[in-house]
Fold this protein.
Amino acid sequence: SQQGEEDPQALSIQEGENATMNCSYKTSINNLQWYRQNSGRGLVHLILIRSNEREKHSGRLRVTLDTSKKSSSLLITASRAADTASYFCATVGNQGGKLIFGQGTELSVKP
Amino acid sequence: KAGVTQTPRYLIKTRGQQVTLSCSPISGHRSVSWYQQTPGQGLQFLFEYFSETQRNKGNFPGRFSGRQFSNSRSEMNVSTLELGDSALYLCASSLARTGRGNTEAFFGQGTRLTVV
């Protein structure tokens, strides 16, 4: 069963705009990871943020983590049509062993 | 460095049959995990293998099983297929056990199984 809830479920923006996706989870975590999936293909790892980190950047991606609110957000700046995909957050508990995924946000970036 | 390779990419099976899916992890990775993705349930964890031993198992019936070989390659088997087993099956490999040492997981392209 999913631990995470993501919102929005779907997001449609124009190229050049920023896209923000949110993820909430229920239990304590070791780390939280964000993945991208294009059209039902494999998942591509985007970024990992540890439970003791609050913010992390990678290129046009910015991830924040608020463990007190059990939530995370992914910001994609200056979006491109190629960013069109589904984005998933996944948590790893303190005992490790598995990724627990949210339901995902479907992002559509229109040229 | 080659990525995670899953074979076959597509599979059509009949209800009641069994199926075996294969996953070759990235060279040097010892942990392999399997996930099932369906439109209704999303991405759900099946099993995790590390050093040929199942370390963790998700909430799936006993018809779902797996194993890992000494070269870290893994197979999963589903027996007595049901229509509801139609899904994208994804394999992920990582250096250490998922979540340990904050290691990231690398996914294959998946095997799309259709049960008719």
